[in-house]
Write a structure and sequence with these properties.
Blueprint lengths: L1 H9 L16 H7 L3 E6 L4 E6 L9 H15 L6 E6 L3 E2 L6 H4 L4 H20 L3 E6 L1 E4 L1 H7 L3 E5 L5 E2 L11 H11 L1 H10 L2 E2 L1 H6 L5 E3 L1 H15 L4 H34 L2 H19 L1
Parallel strand pairs: 2-3, 3-5, 4-6, 5-7, 6-8, 7-10
Antiparallel strand pairs: 1-2, 8-9
Helix pairs in contact: 1-5, 3-5, 5-11, 7-8, 7-11
Bound molecules: ligand L4XM7KOE.
Main location: mitochondrion
GO molecular function, one term: delta(3)-delta(2)-enoyl-CoA isomerase activity
Keywords: Acetylation, Fatty acid metabolism, Isomerase, Lipid metabolism, Mitochondrion, Transit peptide
Amino acid sequence: MACIQKTLRGLGVLRQLPRESTVNQTYCRYASSYKYLQVDLDKKTKVAHLTLARKPANSLNCDMMKEIAMATNELDQDRDCKGIIINSCVPNIFSAGLDLTELYQAKELFFQDFWRSLQAMFSTIYGTKVVTMAAIEGHAPAAGCIIALATDYRVMSEGKFNIGLNESMLGIPMNFWVKDAFIATCGQREGERALQLGQMFIPSTALQIGLVDEVVPQELTLPTVQKHMKQWVKVPGGARGLTKSLIRQQAMDNLKAKADEDLLIMTRHMLSQPIQNTIGAYLENMTKKSKR
Ligand SMILES: CCCCCCCCCCC/C=C/C(=O)SCCNC(=O)CCNC(=O)[C@H](O)C(C)(C)COP(=O)(O)OP(=O)(O)OC[C@H]1O[C@@H](n2cnc3c(N)ncnc32)[C@H](O)[C@@H]1OP(=O)(O)O
């Protein structure tokens, strides 16, 4: 979609994307194109599955975020695609959020690329006119939650899983477009509470505050999303897509206009010694935990 490509180019990312739409892609082309994703488009149903596939936890490194943005963009331009379902091939984990090993002691240039890739991943999913849904079959902290927030409909599995934006608990201030996406989904009051407290939610509470739309047994999560997708793609795409754009355009414009400012602020925060110490300590804890 021209609008997304314009935004992405405005963000200064995805320079490697082709300018022209690549229609008539085959099933195979998608399946074999990515290192950290499986992308399968069923030309009959016109629904694609974009499966996050970076074991052990689908933590989002810079390349994976670029791949997600590229795959979404390709599908967005494919006349054979009307809907994208994002799910995970890692049992019990949708995504563990940003790859903290890449954020720890990151060099400034690398961090800039990393952060622009996060902006691009979000804005590509958020801005596509194609229907997007998330099948959240496990944990979805921080950037895992951000992917889900960018979609049109979220179904989460019952179980001892967490979803939410825990940044302030980690001593890191929220940035504007993540805050906006959360408030657009859950409302001002829930946003004020959840984001200041850095709250993580179990599925039933996530449902109560509107962070997810449905909670079902794990084995029914993907089938439930597929059922809803079947309904949504029946709605005439032009009208539905334009309505979606109308609703989301302002947030997209804001992100585009303030992307550089966001990058500057986040570079200052994330590379500061106190936050680097927090990330280091967090990583150490995770290593200790997985050795136990
Ligand atoms: C601290 C910096 C925050 C920056 C905030 C910036 C604010 C701006 C806006 C927001 C942008 C988004 C920020 C983020 O996404 S920061 C990342 C936040 N993520 C988390 O806090 C989750 C961390 N992980 C977990 O809580 C658990 O792993 C999880 C519940 C997801 C799964 O638990 P489980 O017990 O099943 O699995 P393990 O913990 O044993 O993990 C398996 C292996 O995966 C590695 N792992 C997990 N998470 C990450 C990660 N985020 N980055 C890198 N690696 C990760 C873990 O170390 C295990 O590895 P090994 O098997 O090799 O030991």
